[in-house]
Design a protein that fits this description.
By secondary structure, the chain is an alpha/beta fold. It is 43% helix and 12% strand. α13 packs across α18, α14 packs across α18 and α16 packs across α17. Keywords: ATP-binding, Coiled coil, Cytoplasm, Leucine-rich repeat, Membrane, Nucleotide-binding, Plant defense, Repeat.
């Protein structure tokens, strides 16, 4: 079908006759985008997988929408594939299909992906058919069938509304698996269901994944295991980061010196790999409204692994003027809503809550690395890493905000109004010192 689809795109409307197809939809393998069976032993999320498979095999006769949410690169698509290809699931459904929506959503592309996945083939294919006609054919082909469809990487409620209207609910026990980075979207798609929010891999699972990518079923040399576990731990349980680092390690000699070098700069390794981790994280950032972009970038001012007190973060956001009060809502209440929004978008991690109220939050290290790169590129924030406050030596002549940690800066330094760092900066934030400066100059 994929071959025919490409040929039709070339012919552009010419009739194709004498093509022979099977007369009914395949019960198991019509997949519109790449969704290969998982070759290696799956790592992590076993409990989530069991719950999802149980909902696919049993549960209500009504159409059930199973949502999976989490941070970019945490394994939503991988988990969906594992459930989709589970042997106990495959033969339960009459029709299977997999579509990837993504940020660049085009209704016509999605319609034809589904069309070629679920509509019984005929000896005539018309690529010029109208969207409504195509949608009707898809809907009728799913009518009175038990179907399993994965809708991967959904970004907007409008896109979901357009896609979901194609799925009839005939009490046949049909199921949809929806993956998204956005908790609000998952709740919108299924208000009565609890999303499967994926957590990070633990240290043992992280090492298992790294080991698997590098050695397969072979054992890791004894002298490398301790270093390897340290590398996996520094990825903080994010599967995407572990896979990227594993790809980097696979190109290097398997020696303690090489692995120690990587262990000392895991964040830099992830940043250097083109088109991989940071590009995927950037999609979440690019989708933010402008005021949330400023709030998010500002969080890069806090040190690595720093548990940020919510009250402090909100006061700093307000002081910077990122948000404005509207009507009866105070600017502090708006700031709280913005922070919860960033958490729902899987950009910020909630750490501690008390009586339902968020007390502390933090950034994953890889997300913070992206945050600092973007903030520096936009001249929004500069985080000092060197043993000096002479930031002008790095070619920066018009800073907006400067942040530093006294664990890496000489604590004996004293600020003066004439210092270049002060005169060029809007705000200066210091951590692990007795006095914090966050004063507009």
């Amino acid at each position: 079908m994929e071959f025919i689809k490409k040929e039709v795109m070339k012919i552009k409307g010419e009739k194709i006759s004498t093509l022979k197809f099977r007369s009914k939809v395949s019960p198991a393998r019509h997949v519109s985008t790449s969704s290969p069976n998982v070759q290696q032993k799956p790592v992590g999320f076993q409990e989530d997988l069991e719950k999802i498979v149980d909902r696919l095999r049993g549960g209500p006769s009504e159409l059930d929408i199973i949502t999976i949410v989490g941070m970019a690169g945490i394994g939503k698509t991988t988990l969906a594939k594992r459930a989709y290809n589970d042997p106990s699931v495959v033969n339960r459904f009459d029709v299977h299909a997999w579509i990837t929506v993504s940020q660049e959503y085009r209704e016509r592309d999605i319609l034809f992906d589904l069309f070629y996945s679920v509509v019984p083939p005929t000896n005539e294919i018309n690529q010029e058919r109208r969207n409504q006609e195509t949608a009707d054919r898809v809907y009728k082909s799913l009518k009175w069938k038990r179907f399993l469809i994965v809708v991967d990487d959904m970004w907007s409620t409008d896109a979901w509304d357009n896609v979901s209207r194609l799925f009839p609910d005939d009490n046949k026990g049909s199921r949809i698996i929806l993956t998204s980075r956005l908790t609000d979207l998952a709740t919108y798609a299924n208000p009565d269901g609890q999303p499967h929010r994926l957590d990070f891999l633990n240290n043992d699972e992280g090492w298992e994944l790294l080991h698997q990518k590098l050695f397969g079923k072979r054992g890791c040399p004894f002298e490398l295991e301790k270093i390897g576990r340290s590398i996996a731990e520094k990825c903080q349980g994010l599967p995407l980061a572990i896979v990227v680092v594993a790809g980097h390690l696979s190109k290097m000699s398997k020696t303690t010196d090489c692995w120690n070098t990587v262990a000392e700069s895991v964040g830099s390794v992830v940043n250097r790999e083109p088109g991989q981790c940071l590009d995927i994280l950037a999609l979440s950032y690019n989708y933010l409204p402008q005021h949330l972009k400023a709030c998010f970038l500002y969080m890069g001012a806090f040190p690595e692994d720093f548990e940020i007190p919510v009250w402090k973060l909100i006061r700093l956001w307000v002081a910077e003027g990122f948000l404005n009060a509207t009507g009866l809502t105070t600017v502090e209440e708006i700031a709280e809503e913005c922070l919860e929004d960033l958490i729902d978008r899987s950009l910020v991690l909630a750490v501690k809550r008390s009586n339902g109220k968020l007390k502390t939050c933090k950034l994953h290290d890889i997300m913070r690395d992206f945050c600092l790169e973007e903030a520096k590129r936009q001249n929004f924030l500069h985080f000092l890493k060197k043993q000096s406050l002479d930031v002008l030596s790095e070619g920066i002549t018009a800073l907006r905000r400067v942040s530093f940690n006294c664990s890496t800066i000489f604590s004996s330094y004293s600020f003066h109004p004439t210092d270049p760092t002060v005169s060029f900066s809007r705000s200066i934030l210091g951590f692990n010192i007795s006095l914090q400066i966050a004063q507009s100059s």
